[in-house]
Amino acid sequence: MLRIIKKPEPSKQQLVAIKITAVILAFVASTVFILSLGHNPFSVYFSMLEGCFGSLYRFNETVIKTIPLAITSLGILIAFKMKFWNIGGEGQILMGAFLASFFALKFPSMPMALLMPLMIVAGMVGGGLWALIPAFFKARLGTNETLFTLMMNYIALQWVTYLQYGPWKDPNALGFPKIPNFSSNAVLPSVLGIHAGWIICLLFIAGIYVFMKYSKKGFEISVIGESETTALYAGMNVKKITLIAIFMSGALCGLAGMIQASAVSNTLSIEIAGGVGYTAIIVAWLSGLSAPIILLVSFLFATLVQGGAYIQTAFQIPQSAAQILQGMILIFVLGSEFFSKYKIDIKKEKPSDNEDGARTA
Amino acid sequence: MALISFLSAAVQAGMPLLFATVGEIITEKSGNLNLGVEGLMLLGAVAGFQVGLITANPFLAVMGALLAGAAGALVFAFLTVTLRANQVVTGLSLTILGTGVASFTGQSLMGQVVPEGISKFFAAVNIPLLGSIPFIGPVLFQQSIFVYMGFIVAIAAGVYFYKTRLGLNLRVVGENPAAADASGINVTLYKYVHIIVGGALCALGGAYLSLVYIPSWQENVTSGRGWIAVALVIFSMWNPYKAMLSAIFFGGLDIVGFRIQKFDIAVSQYMIDMLPYIATIIVLIAVSAKKSKENMAPQSLGEPYFREDR
What we know:
Strand order of the largest sheet of chain A: 1-4
Order of helices and strands of chain A: EHHHHHHEEHHHHHHHHE
Strand order of the largest sheet of chain B: 1-2
Mean pLDDT of chain B: 88
CATH architecture of chain B: Orthogonal Bundle
CATH class of chain B: Mainly Alpha
Oligomer: heterodimer
Radius of gyration of chain A: 23 Å
Shape of chain B: globular
CATH superfamily of chain B: ABC transporter involved in vitamin B12 uptake, BtuC
């Protein structure tokens, strides 16, 4: 008989070994998939790598795709640490981008040294407030935040669509529905060939790591996530901490939106978030809610996206094939997490004669 | 007359939502939150269309969609029930995978049209007597067989939940799996069966789009309807009877944006498109404020069940 039992907390090496096994299995599955398309898997993989690292330009592109993913995942991490299932990254990105764009479009001639910090703050406030709405109702009434934050994404998307097709539509775009481009003062400058978002990203990775690990608030967030009763018993103001943490969570997503609007598209558009809010949930989860690992996983995801786009032209493999690969890898890694928490006991004797039998899974 | 044609169109536009909503209600009743509805609908849409194209047989097309949805949901069930993976993340991954598979297999189907045999089979049928009732007749009883199927599925789900022993057991599983387990209900089996049936129904909603509503293949044919269905589950308060009304209501909102342009109303279409989500949030808040057991999400929704945690 098979019986599933909880394992004691596995060691770091064990965890890494399990994840690597999962990724290898996913690769085996992907290889079969590529073979079935009639391509040589190794040349496809090689080509994907070439698409990501083959030239300085391509490498920069990969990094640029990593930045919003990593920052948003950091935001999601804070919420997930306290078991607040923030699925609203997408909307928080859009609303952060919206508020930052408001200042970019309203004050195009403000000096960059003033406008840039203003936009960053606006982006964080925009995303933070958007996250605060579901957090408020969760704290007050216990409203289900998974579904609430999901709905907020759609409202944000409709809001930006409304602006893009309505009041903010560029009159000079010959009827094309787009919002005017930012002035150069509102565009995040480049550092070493990549927009300065990468510096902001690294700063926040370090900052959130320290915050979660060493600060009192970070500790309180983890305690609430572990057990709300314990937190209440310890005299923590759970509601207040929830609101602060979720504001921070949304603020980081909003910051990612600001960076995308300012540095990547130079304007606000409905494509700003483009699924990053959802992918970030997966990234945060796969990273085991650890800030430094988020950087690594985000980079791997960016590689998949960038490499996937490249094999499209190189092998005429549709972009959707990369999406299938991504899905398969995710499913294997998700499945593997089981083996870090549980182990399967194989019993030889008949279990019916003791109370163990009733507990056989 | 304009109202009748509008309502009739709203019923048609609401149908993919109804299938997916009832499917997701069945899934959630077992305590599992499957956010992969969009992916499952796309799988159903592409499988139904592909099989329909090859066989020109409406039954096989529907079977193809059901099987594709069941297969997708089986992956979800295995990961979340047996391997206890996080439901939210698994659901999102399923959407990524489903979207990828649909867009990949759909590439060669682009621009193809449903065979005549199938489109004839799913054309509007006027039910004798019922169809001639004024007002209600043309709205409800001069529709495609697929539409009647949607209402039958919703009513059957309602009867199952509220009038049968199995349905009662299912609700216990969703509310309190430990109690269900203690009273001898096979929690794992219940979860598997209902996740798979729910997933198959979501896929049927997708197939309705590609076989009846559009009826040809387009990239991303569902265009976010799977997510609306997740909202509709809340809007309907996990009740399949209410799901019928809310699906038609949301179907109406879906087309009202286009129709409103004819009139000189100073409301943006995009603002109207926002209403379903705002309405859903208001329902969500109202439901949690009222705390009435009947209208709430199943207690254990989203939580994996592990026997030895008891």
